[in-house]
């Protein structure tokens, strides 16, 4: 007979009948009544009024009936805390029962009843159960300590339960050890201090490793997680632990496998890079990770996110396993995209042919998002592997010939990046790209095509016509396209000044007069000023060599990667964020990978010095090539001190440019006398262009009188020289940063608070903040660089 009969609807006097049955002298009738009560409770009916009658049924030797009553108590104790105390005496009595199952059941139930009034009575029975001779009771009591800590942390610490848990780590039963480790780990995570509650030493580690082979799979996970927090004293101890953990890689449970991988990945950091055991361990790690990819899609995704981290840290582990990451037709999109990312990370000169063949096949799929990612992946492969760039470009051209709109547009975007990486190498394909100009309708693709035309304007005969076609609907374009079009036309003018004056005049007018976008207006004003004052400087700025892009820009920042390796198998490894980023109120100690001991045979920097040195990070921003300006270096090396006398920077136009082109002498609308937003012209901005002034730095002329030629025209008389603020000869920057003329302020008394110039989110963990200060007639830049 099934239990379905207990869920059937009964007649009107249901509660009354149940009450009568619960108080019956017949044991079977009493058991049936309790089952009906539990059934009603399960479907959501309120049977709390039967609380005293159900509690009376606790006094029984029948284990099944006792379990049912305890289940009822756990559910209704919160709503009936005063009546729940009636059951305390029975709990205490059951904790001393001769049957270990009843003792364990009683202490487990008391731990689950989250009522403050009961927790005080729980301490004595719990203390006895932690010392119980039966391991089943001990392991149940160990978990109960963690539950009690969640209710009342102070009580657990005062009663010495944590010390008793530490003692259980040396128990003979592996399940007791596993549950003690689990309880201590839970308490440690919940502890506000974040300090480790139990110190792992060689003896404890040996005990945990012995228990590892005999406890359940979830016990193994807790033990492995605790092992990962241990730092061996040398590489020999690390190797010994790894040898005993390695068999867990063959476990059927994916969580056990990932926990074992976490321990091995951490301890591998301590081994010499040329050791034979490290090579063997690297080979052993690949098969279990590959096996995880044959599980259901959800497990596959978790495995792939973890593999993504492992591949970034140690690509040699899976370098021979490229084929397992090839996409299957029935893979969910989230699995496909992860596989695609890992394929790119594993791509190398030896396997690029099969990777490109796969990616080209993916580009013909029906899923548009996946196709776009596949085309971008081809571009990333070209940037990553220089020897195969030509083959990648050829593959992209084949895809462009398919004339599929979104494929063509995505291909043009990635070809722009390839041009950035390999300048002046693949210009022969520009003609093919220009054929598809009319089909481009996405802002990113249009902006990329405009960039290509502007960058290689001298090689495209009809570049002016192509750019003019974009200019017709300038105000309807996306901001990204407008900015790129403005820059491209200025580039074209600087390369072919004779026949593009009208075009550049038109785009500058559109950008400065007719646009409401402040970014576009500002860029237009900057270009206008550059072109009207010093075309040679404009050429140096606009046509300067661009820094080469690098494929490594999508890598996780090295210190974050090391931290995430310590969290393999947890949510942090799926989100690719440390726990503090998504667990509210978490302030646990940050985990880091151990470093190799000196003299271990490693060639890494940390092995050569006794001091803790941060390992050299992979180069995310490439170094400037020889002869190419270094932006950060120039910023740090700015000479803001009192300059020597310098000749005027506006003496005459350089050879090859002649006079400024027609229309550049006068300012555009908005630059007239005191336009809105500019107020009255400051000293040095209102009259005719400044001639040679000894106190003006030649490098700062663009901040000085260069704007006068645009603002007031050349016919105005030269104003009388103004005395420098603060009595110094700092010129324009001194005037800007000194507040000596302010009411009641002496020179150098005010320092602007530091502001963030480069947020850590944009700088991949590098944050730059700073301020400028004026002290003793000198301008100082105070900058702080922080690696978060």
Automatic annotation (TrEMBL):
Subcellular location: Endomembrane system
Keywords on record: Membrane, Protein transport, Transport
Clathrin/coatomer adaptor adaptin-like N-terminal domain segment(s): 12-534
Pfam families given in the database record: Adaptin_N
Signal peptide as annotated in the record: none
Positions in coiled-coil regions: none
Alphabetized Gene3D superfamilies for the sequence: 2.60.40.1150, Leucine-rich Repeat Variant
Membrane topology: Peripheral membrane protein
Major subcellular location class: membrane
Cellular component terms per the entry's GO annotation: endomembrane system; membrane coat
BP term (GO), one: intracellular protein transport
Family stated for the protein in its record: Belongs to the adaptor complexes large subunit family.
Protein name: Clathrin/coatomer adaptor adaptin-like N-terminal domain-containing protein
Organism: Patiria miniata (Bat star)
């Amino acid at each position: 007979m099934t239990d379905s009969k207990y869920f059937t609807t009964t007649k009107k006097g249901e509660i009354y009948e149940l009450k009568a049955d619960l108080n019956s002298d017949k044991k079977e009738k009493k058991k049936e009544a309790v089952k009906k009560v539990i059934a009603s409770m399960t479907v959501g009916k309120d049977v709390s009024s039967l609380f005293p009658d159900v509690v009376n049924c606790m006094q029984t030797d029948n284990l099944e009936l006792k379990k049912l009553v305890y289940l009822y108590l756990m559910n209704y104790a919160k709503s009936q805390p005063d009546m729940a105390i009636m059951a305390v005496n029975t709990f205490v009595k059951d904790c001393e029962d001769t049957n270990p199952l009843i003792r364990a059941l009683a202490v487990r139930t008391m731990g689950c009843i989250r009522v403050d009034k009961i927790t005080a009575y729980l301490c004595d029975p719990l203390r006895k159960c932690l010392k119980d001779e039966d391991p089943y009771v001990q392991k149940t009591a160990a978990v109960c300590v963690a539950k009690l800590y969640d209710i009342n942390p102070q009580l657990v610490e005062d009663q010495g339960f944590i010390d008793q848990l530490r003692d259980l780590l040396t128990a003979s039963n592996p399940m007791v050890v596993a549950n003690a480790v689990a309880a201590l780990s839970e308490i440690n995570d919940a502890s506000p201090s974040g300090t480790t509650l139990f110190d792992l030493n060689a003896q404890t580690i040996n005990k945990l490793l012995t228990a590892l082979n005999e406890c359940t799979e979830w016990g193994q996970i807790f033990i492995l997680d605790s092992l990962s927090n241990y730092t061996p004293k040398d590489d020999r101890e690390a190797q010994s632990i790894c040898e005993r953990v390695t068999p867990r890689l063959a476990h059927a449970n994916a969580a056990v496998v990932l926990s074992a991988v976490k321990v091995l990945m951490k301890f591998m950091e301590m081994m010499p890079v040329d050791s034979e055991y490290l090579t063997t361990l690297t080979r052993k790690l690949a098969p279990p990770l590959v096996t995880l990819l044959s599980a259901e899609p959800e497990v596959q995704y978790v495995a792939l996110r973890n593999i993504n981290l492992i591949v970034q840290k140690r690509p040699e582990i899976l370098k021979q396993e490229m084929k397992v990451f090839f996409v299957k037709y029935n893979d969910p999109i989230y699995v496909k995209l992860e596989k695609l990312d890992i394929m790119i990370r594993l791509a190398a000169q030896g396997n690029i042919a099969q990777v490109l063949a796969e990616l080209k096949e993916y580009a013909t799929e029906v899923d548009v998002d996946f196709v776009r990612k596949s085309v971008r992946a081809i571009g990333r492969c070209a940037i990553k592997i220089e020897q195969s760039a030509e083959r990648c470009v050829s593959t992209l051209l084949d895809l462009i010939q398919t004339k599929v709109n979104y494929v063509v547009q995505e291909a043009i975007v990635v070809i722009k990046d390839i041009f950035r990486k390999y300048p002046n190498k693949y210009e022969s394909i520009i003609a093919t790209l220009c054929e598809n100009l009319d089909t481009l309708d996405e802002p990113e693709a249009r902006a990329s095509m405009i960039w290509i035309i502007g960058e290689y304007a001298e090689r495209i005969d009809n570049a002016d016509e192509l750019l003019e076609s974009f200019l017709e609907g300038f105000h309807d374009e996306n901001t990204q396209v407008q900015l790129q079009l403005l820059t491209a036309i200025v580039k074209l003018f600087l390369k072919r000044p004779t026949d593009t004056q009208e075009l550049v005049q038109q785009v500058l007018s559109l950008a400065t007069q007719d646009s409401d976008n402040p970014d576009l207006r500002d860029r237009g004003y900057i270009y206008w000023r550059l072109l009207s004052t010093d075309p040679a400087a404009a050429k140096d700025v606009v046509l300067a060599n661009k820094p080469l892009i690098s494929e490594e820009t999508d890598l996780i920042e090295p210190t974050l990667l090391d931290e995430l390796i310590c969290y393999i198998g947890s949510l942090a490894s799926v989100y690719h964020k440390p726990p503090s980023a998504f667990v509210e109120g978490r302030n646990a100690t940050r985990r880091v990978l151990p470093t190799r001991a000196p003299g271990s045979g490693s060639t890494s920097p940390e092995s050569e010095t006794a001091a803790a040195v941060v390992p050299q990070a992979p180069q995310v921003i490439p170094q400037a090539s020889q002869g190419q300006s270094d932006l950060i270096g120039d910023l740090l090396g700015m000479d803001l001190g009192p300059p020597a006398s310098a000749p005027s920077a506006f003496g005459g136009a350089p050879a090859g440019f002649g006079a400024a082109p027609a229309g550049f002498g006068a300012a555009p609308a908005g630059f007239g006398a005191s336009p809105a937003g500019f107020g009255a012209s400051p000293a040095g901005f209102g009259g005719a262009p400044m001639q040679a002034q000894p106190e003006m730095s030649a490098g700062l002329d663009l901040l000085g009188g260069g704007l006068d030629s645009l603002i007031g025209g050349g016919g105005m008389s030269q104003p009388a020289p103004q005395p420098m603020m603060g009595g110094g000869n700092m010129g324009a920057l001194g005037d800007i940063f000194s507040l000596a003329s302010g009411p009641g302020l002496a020179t150098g008394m005010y320092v602007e608070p530091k502001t963030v110039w480069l947020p850590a989110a944009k700088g991949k963990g590098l944050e730059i903040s700073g301020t400028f200060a004026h002290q003793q007639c000198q301008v100082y830049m105070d900058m702080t660089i922080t690696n978060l």
